[in-house]
Every structure is written in structure tokens, then in C-alpha cells.
Design brief:
about 625 residues; mainly alpha; 3 domains; 2 strands
Length: about 625
């Protein structure tokens, strides 16, 4: 029974906005019907509110519970106006018209009977509304506080309406005038509340406008920040471009200078190599000249030796044909000397050829290494140019991305602003109970868009920062690479200089070593030849002395043989003459003749004695040959 007046007022308010309005008015007397109709029609906001409530309920069922609550409040006010007007109608009419009062009482009883059937349905609707309200509380965290306040307000209003309806039910038949004033006072309070709600709604709209302005200011700030960042990035890009250009110019200049230095070094090396070649040719010519002179001298010595050997050989052939061992020894010595001289010449030629080939190979290796180093440096320079072109293309692409990002941000801000303006206009056009939901949705949409735009701007800012860091790292890498190339050039230059100096020193050492070896070989060959010549001279002198001694011995033997033969002939002749003289003269004493013979005996060279009478007569008588 507590909710009976509320349900009664709700049903009457619904009937005012539907086709059942005629049914209600048909129950009211005809004399009071026009006045009641006039009274109900007069406040236009009530019907507008009810119509907007019906439209809101049909359009947005998700917010049916809050809309029903507001509608219930408006319906309560309208019901109070209707009931008060209906109750105040007899006050304005004749006081004696009891039939109208009875008809109104019967109408109230009928209405109570009809409202009894509507109570259960409205209770069920109220329970569903509360369930929807609880569901809305679980669905949206942003409307939680508002739902709580609306629920508390609904409970308070329900309690107030319950108390008011109880009082109205008790005092309905006694105090129509006071109730009318109370209803008017309540209507004024409701008007004030509606005005307050409109003011709060305008405040919310102003807050939304402030939020939009803040978003626009933040968007402008972001745009200015992005433009500043773009300017900074462009300055950094220009600075890095200038540094890279300066670095490229420096590298090109250093590379050209190093190239010129290398070319000069190569030319100097070529000149040094040519000088070494000329010196080698001159030394070879000198060596050939010395070798020719030495060969001539050796040939003269050999010819002299040959001549001496021929003489000795001829003498030996003449004197002692049977003595062929000396000839073989001399021939062997001569052939060994000639073979050793020929081997010495061949070894000297081979060593000279090896030195020439080694010097040619070293020169060729140096030239190939210089070409390879020049090719490597050229490739490094081309690679550095390609990297610089890639960095320039990356900078151009970054500038294009910055321009496109600025255009996208401008379009996004314009679109956001236009959408916010459109939604604000649409929001201003709609001033019904759906405003809270649309405002929340609009705020959420704007917040989401602002969040998306902020995230996008932050992401783009992070991307630009990363691109700037990458470009800085690339510039540092290019700088380090340039420094490394410079260090490599210097190292290559030092290495080539060291290799050239080492090759030159090695060539000089090899030349000196070869010269020393050839000189040593020549000295050794000369000493050996002189030693062999001296040995040959010694052998020849020895053989000559032996030959002379043998010749003297043979001559002495021949002389002794001839002397003995002549002595034997003389002795034989003397003996024959003596025997003839003995036989003729008959020596007086043979003993005296024997003694004389023994006294005339002489000694030979070998120690033997011979008879003196065997000597020639001229020797015995003075050597003049007279007898």
C-alpha cells in the first residue's frame, strides 16, 4: 500500500502521454475535464520530458533504469498536479455540488482498483530497473559514482514520495487546498531541481568544452613540440650532413694526398729499382769484364803452363819415352783445373741469374702489392661513398616521414576537433535524459581519441628519437670508419715504406753477398790456381831436376863406359905391344916389371884399382900425347 500512490501517479502520467488519456478524462466530469486538460497541458516541459523519456527508453535500452527514475520523478510531479487539480476543481466550483464529489470518489475507487493490478507489474519493472542498474554498475566503472548517487536519490525520493502519498491519502478528503499548495511548492522545487540539473549539465558541457580546449591546447603543444623536434632533427641532420661532407672532403683530400705520396713513393721505388737495375747491370758488366780479364790471365797462365807442359812433355818424350806417369799427372791436373774453372764460371753465372730472378720477383711482388693496396683503398673509398649515399637517402626518407607525420597529425587534430565540435553540437541539440550517457560516451571517446593521439605522438616521438639516435650512431660509425681508414692508410704507407726499405736493403745485402761470394770464389780460384801453378812448377822443377840428375848419371855412366872401353882398348893395345916388346926384348927380370906395374896402379872412382900400365901413355907422360 505504500507504493500505491506512486503507482497511481505513474499510471496517470503514462496515460497523459498515451492513448489512455481519453479514458482518464472520460472518467472525469465534463465540467471539470476541460480545466483538468488545460491544467495538464499548460506545463510543456512535463510532456516533453515524458516524450523524451519514452524516446530514450526505446532508443537506448541500456539506460532504461536511470531514465525510468527521472521519468518517475516527472510522472510523480505531473500526477500530483493532476490529482491536485482534480481535487481543487470542486473548490473552485460550487460547494454544494456533492454529485461531483461522489463521482470523483467513485473514480478514485475505480482507479485504486485498476492501480492494484498495476502494482505488481510496476514492482517487477522496478526490480528489473534495479537489476539493470546493478548491471550498469558492473559494466562501466566511470558511472559507478553516478549510479550510486542516483540510487540513493531514487531511494530518498521513493521514501519521500511514499511519505507524501501516505499523507496525501490520509488528508485527501480534508485538506485539498493545503495539498495544492504543497503540490505547487513541490512543483517549484522540482523546477528548481531541473534548473539546477540544467545548470549542472551546462557546467558539464563547459567542462567538456574546457577539456576540448585543453585537448586542442595539448594538441597545439604537441604540434609545437613536434615542430621543435623536427627543427632540432633537421638541425642535427644538417649538422651531421655538414660534418659528413667535411669528413668526406677531408677523407678525399687525405686519400688524394696519400695516393700522391704513394705514387711518389712508387715512382721513387721505381727509380730506386731502376738505379739498382743499372747498378746490377754495371756490376754485372764489371764482373764480366773482370771475369774476362781473369779468364784471359788464366788462359795466358794456362797457355804458358801448356807450353811448359808441352816442352816438358817433349823433353820427357825425347829423353824418357817410357816415363808416361808425369804426362798423365800433368794432363789430370790440367783437366781438373779446367773443369774447376768451368764449374766456377757456371756457378757464378747461376748465382748471378738467381740474384737477377730474385730481384725481378721482389720488384714484381712490390708492384703487385702496391696495385692491390691501391685497389683496396679505392674500394674503401667507393664503399665510404656508398655509405654516405645511404645515409643521405635515409635522411631524405626521414624528412619525408616527418612531413607525412606532420600532415597526419594535422589531419588527425582537425578530424578530432571536427568530431568534437559535431558531437558537441549534437550534444547541445539533445537536452533530454540521454545527455548523461552521451556525455559520458563523448568524454570516453574524446579521452580515448586523446589517449590514442597522445600514444601515437609519443610513439612517433620515440621513433624520431630512435631514428636520430640511429643517425647519430651511423655518423659515429662513419667517423670511426674514416679514422680507421686513415689509420689503415698510414699503416699501409708505413708498411709499404718498410717493405720497400727492407727490399732495397735485402737487394743491397744480396748484391753485396753475391759480390763477396763471387770475389771470394775468384780469390779462392786465383789462390787455388796459383797454388796449383806453384805445385806444377815445383813438380816440373822436381821432374826437371830429377831428369837432369838422371841425365847426368847416364852421361857419367856413358862417360865411364866410354872411358873404360877406351882404357881397355888402350890396355889391350899396350898389352899386345908389351907382349910383343917382351917377346922381342925379353925383359931381364919379370919381378922388376911386376913391381913397376904395381907402382903405377891407380884407384877408380868406385874404389877399385886398375893397373897403371892400362893408362894412356899421354897421361902417364904429361898428357901431351907424346911418347
Amino acid at each position: 500500500m505504500v507504493l500505491l500512490p506512486t503507482l497511481l501517479v505513474t499510471w496517470m502520467s503514462t496515460c497523459l502521454l498515451s492513448d489512455s488519456f481519453d479514458t482518464v478524462t472520460s472518467l472525469i466530469p465534463l465540467t471539470r475535464r476541460a480545466y483538468l486538460h488545460k491544467t495538464v497541458i499548460t506545463p510543456p516541459y512535463s510532456r516533453v520530458a515524458f516524450q523524451s523519456t519514452r524516446v530514450t527508453s526505446s532508443v537506448s535500452p541500456s539506460l532504461s533504469s536511470p531514465t525510468c527514475l527521472y521519468s518517475t520523478q516527472d510522472e510523480d510531479e505531473t500526477s500530483d498536479v493532476i490529482i491536485n487539480n482534480a481535487a481543487a476543481a470542486p473548490v473552485e466550483s460550487d460547494a454544494g455540488d456533492t454529485k461531483d464529489v461522489e463521482s470523483e470518489a467513485t473514480m478514485i475507487q475505480k482507479l485504486e482498483a485498476k492501480y492494484t493490478t498495476e502494482i505488481a507489474r510496476l514492482k517487477f519493472s522496478l526490480a528489473e530497473a534495479r537489476e539493470d542498474l546493478e548491471q550498469m554498475e558492473g559494466m562501466a566503472d566511470t558511472f559507478e559514482n553516478l549510479s550510486k548517487s542516483l540510487e540513493e536519490r531514487l531511494d530518498a525520493e521513493v521514501e519521500e514520495k511514499t511519505v507524501e502519498l501516505q499523507k496525501l491519502e490520509q488528508e485527501l478528503t480534508e485538506k485539498f487546498g493545503e495539498q495544492l499548495e504543497k503540490v505547487k511548492y513541490d512543483a517549484e522545487n522540482k523546477e528548481r531541481e531541473k534548473v539546477f540539473e540544467l545548470v549542472s549539465l551546462q557546467g558539464m558541457i563547459s567542462d567538456l568544452e574546457d577539456t576540448i580546449q585543453k585537448m586542442e591546447s595539448k594538441a597545439k603543444e604537441m604540434e609545437s613540440k613536434i615542430s621543435g623536434l623536427r627543427v632540432q632533427v633537421q638541425d642535427e641532420i644538417e649538422k651531421k650532413r655538414a660534418e659528413l661532407q667535411d669528413l668526406e672532403a677531408q677523407l678525399t683530400e687525405k686519400f688524394n694526398a696519400e695516393k700522391k705520396l704513394l705514387q711518389n713513393e712508387i715512382q721513387e721505388n721505381d727509380g730506386t729499382i731502376e738505379t739498382l737495375k743499372k747498378e746490377a747491370v754495371i756490376q754485372q758488366q764489371e764482373f764480366q769484364e773482370k771475369r774476362r780479364l781473369e779468364n784471359e790471365r788464366m788462359e795466358e797462365i794456362i797457355n804458358a803452363l801448356k807450353k811448359d807442359l808441352n816442352n816438358v812433355t817433349n823433353d820427357l818424350k825425347k829423353k824418357r819415352a817410357q816415363e808416361g806417369s808425369w804426362r798423365r799427372a800433368i794432363n789430370k791436373t790440367r783437366t781438373d783445373f779446367m773443369r774447376q774453372l768451368r764449374n766456377t764460371r757456371m756457378e757464378a753465372a747461376r748465382e748471378l741469374k738467381k740474384v737477377k730472378n730474385r730481384m725481378a720477383q721482389d720488384i714484381k711482388l712490390l708492384e703487385e702489392k702496391a696495385k692491390e693496396e691501391t685497389g683496396k683503398l679505392t674500394q674503401e673509398r667507393d664503399r665510404a661513398k656508398e655509405d654516405l649515399a645511404d645515409v643521405t637517402a635515409a635522411k631524405i626518407e626521414l624528412n619525408n616521414e616527418l612531413v607525412s607525420f606532420r600532415e597526419e597529425m594535422t589531419e588527425l587534430l582537425a578530424e578530432t576537433k571536427q568530431n568534437a565540435t559535431d558531437e558537441l553540437d549534437a550534444f547541445r541539440e539533445k537536452s533530454n535524459a540521454e545527455t548523461t550517457k552521451q556525455l559520458s560516451e563523448l568524454r570516453d571517446d574524446l579521452t580515448e581519441k586523446l589517449r590514442i593521439a597522445t600514444e601515437k605522438a609519443e610513439a612517433e616521438e620515440n621513433r624520431l628519437t630512435e631514428e636520430l639516435e640511429k643517425m647519430t650512431e651511423e655518423a659515429n660509425f662513419q667517423t670511426k670508419r674514416s679514422l680507421r681508414l686513415i689509420a689503415d692508410l698510414e699503416t699501409t704507407k708505413k708498411n709499404m715504406k718498410a717493405e720497400i726499405v727492407a727490399t732495397r736493403d735485402k737487394a743491397n745485402r744480396d748484391l753485396m753477398t753475391l759480390r763477396a761470394e763471387l770475389t771470394k770464389q775468384m780469390v779462392d780460384a786465383k789462390v787455388k790456381a796459383e797454388f796449383e801453378y806453384s805445385e806444377l812448377l815445383k813438380e816440373r822443377n822436381k821432374s826437371v831436376s830429377e831428369r837432369d840428375s838422371k841425365i847426368e848419371e847416364q852421361a857419367a855412366k856413358i862417360y865411364t863406359y866410354e872411358t873404360e872401353r877406351s882404357s881397355i882398348r888402350t890396355m889391350t893395345r899396350i898389352s899386345v905391344q908389351l907382349m910383343r916388346s917382351r917377346m922381342k926384348k925379353r925383359l931381364k927380370s919379370t919381378r922388376k916389371g911386376v913391381a913397376n906395374v904395381s907402382r903405377r896402379a891407380i884407384k877408380r872412382k868406385d874404389g877399385t884399382s886398375r893397373l897403371a900400365f892400362l893408362r894412356r901413355r899421354r897421361e902417364k907422360k904429361g898428357g901431351d900425347g907424346s911418347s
